[in-house]
Amino acid sequence: MSKNPTSHTPIDVGDGAAIPNKNDAGLFTAWRIAFFGAIFVSLYLAFGKSDPYYEIFKFVPDGILVTFKVTLGAILLATCIGLITGLGRISGNRFINGAASLYVEVIRGIPLLVQIFYIYYALGRFVKIPDMLSAIIAMAVCYGAYMGEVFRAGIQSIPKGQMEAALSLGMSRGQAMRQVILPQAFKVVLPPIGNEFIALLKDSSLVSILAVSDLLRRGREYASETFSYFETYTVIALIYLVMTLFFSKLIGIMEERLNAGK
């Protein structure tokens, strides 16, 4: 059984900030210019321009925490849904394969905002659940379809000889999948999962239409009270930019460490 399975084709299906890699080692990389530029502008506005920017920066931190909670909860649930969907998409069982494929096709064909509304009000007709949980479920259901394709591509990128070798050693298909295929596939799908996380972080702003006080909603509340729309949304944009760039760098570091362990 080969210890180096990777004649893998890189997978890139996200639309978030580009994940930096070791080739971006120059002093003035696009990431550094954008990240430190956003921090510098934020500090200048908060302490150099003072009102109303300083007050806005004091008003929105609660929304940042809520945005993180929604994003983290949704990505964890979406990863579980995606793994199940991906396994279903490669299943030889026609019913399971068909059900997984139908889920992917239906969800990907409906805008995320419509799904958020639908799940929020549909669930609300049958059971009362907290607004944030409803938002997390809606985001996870939508991103689970995309993650399913990520896992399907990641699993199929592992050479078939890996499965055949595991079966020849006496493993069942389930054991081979758990102990041989999935550990290798996880390294392949980590970058696209990172991209999905960053995209989800940005799309989490859509839950502000519900009664969830995320970052954007906190900004809308401040702007509606003070009519400082330009200043408020400038601050909101800078905070989102810093967050997405920070996590893109963090994911890039994780990816390099995983690759170093191959």
From TrEMBL:
<keyword id="KW-1133">Transmembrane helix</keyword>
<dbReference type="Pfam" id="PF00528">
    <property type="entry name" value="BPD_transp_1"/>
</dbReference>
<dbReference type="InterPro" id="IPR035906">
    <property type="entry name" value="MetI-like_sf"/>
</dbReference>
<keyword id="KW-0472">Membrane</keyword>
<keyword id="KW-1003">Cell membrane</keyword>
<feature type="transmembrane region" description="Helical">
    <location>
        <begin position="227"/>
        <end position="247"/>
    </location>
</feature>
<feature type="transmembrane region" description="Helical">
    <location>
        <begin position="100"/>
        <end position="120"/>
    </location>
</feature>
<keyword id="KW-0029">Amino-acid transport</keyword>
<keyword id="KW-0812">Transmembrane</keyword>
<feature type="domain" description="ABC transmembrane type-1">
    <location>
        <begin position="64"/>
        <end position="251"/>
    </location>
</feature>
<keyword id="KW-0813">Transport</keyword>
<comment type="similarity">
    <text>Belongs to the binding-protein-dependent transport system permease family. HisMQ subfamily.</text>
</comment>
<dbReference type="InterPro" id="IPR010065">
    <property type="entry name" value="AA_ABC_transptr_permease_3TM"/>
</dbReference>
<dbReference type="InterPro" id="IPR000515">
    <property type="entry name" value="MetI-like"/>
</dbReference>
<comment type="function">
    <text>Part of the binding-protein-dependent transport system for glutamine; probably responsible for the translocation of the substrate across the membrane.</text>
</comment>
<feature type="transmembrane region" description="Helical">
    <location>
        <begin position="29"/>
        <end position="47"/>
    </location>
</feature>
<feature type="transmembrane region" description="Helical">
    <location>
        <begin position="67"/>
        <end position="88"/>
    </location>
</feature>
<dbReference type="InterPro" id="IPR043429">
    <property type="entry name" value="ArtM/GltK/GlnP/TcyL/YhdX-like"/>
</dbReference>
<feature type="transmembrane region" description="Helical">
    <location>
        <begin position="132"/>
        <end position="151"/>
    </location>
</feature>
<protein>
    <submittedName>
        <fullName>Amino acid ABC transporter permease</fullName>
    </submittedName>
</protein>
